[in-house]
Amino acid sequence: MKGAHPLNRKVDFKKDFKQLYLPKPSPEIIQVPKMNFIMVEGSGDPNGGEFSKAVEALYSLSYTVRMSYKSKDVPEGYYEYTVFPMEGVWDLVDRTKPSTDKSNYKYTLMIRQPDFLTAQGFQRFLEQVKVKKPNPFLETARFESMEEGLCCQMMHVGNYDDEPASFARMEAFCAENGYTRTSKLHREIYLSDPRKTMPEKLKTVLRFHAEKSR
Questions:
Q1: Domain GyrI-like small molecule binding spans what residues (predicted)?
Q2: 3-state secondary structure of 117
Q3: Angle separating helix axes 119-132 and 49-66, nearest 10 degrees
């Protein structure tokens, strides 16, 4: 039946993909599978207005997909699900500058999408959102598959500014267990709303690529 899901229940990332989104607060090695995302890119201080616009564009698109069961053209294979958390892949615009300079950040923000979303469906929803909620980041938003593969990850609990200590733990864990970090790029998965959560209670999944040392 169109719209039915084989699990016959709402898909919840906290239950169905627990290993990817609810790791322990200690480092571990994980194989991350191929997944589909809606993505936007930007640069600059994440505390600024441009970053907020990027986030808004991403959520506008994701919730339009989520609520598409109410539309006249329901996507083939639609099933009920909880919108996945926002993720960010972070790098520096100028790597000669210190990582503490937030104006030097560049980022790709993304939200995982359900399996039923197709490239054609994404384009349809994108055009709808452009009309209803114009946003400059919609002009470059894209729908892509990504496979991270072998990674080291852990749950970071606390202020975003305290993440370097957790990354140091992760790198030490890799060294002790025969793995090597392969890139300065890293991924953050945001499980808490910073507008409603005290900084010391923020939960963020930290992840970077790793490979078995030779």
A1: 27-204
A2: coil
A3: 120
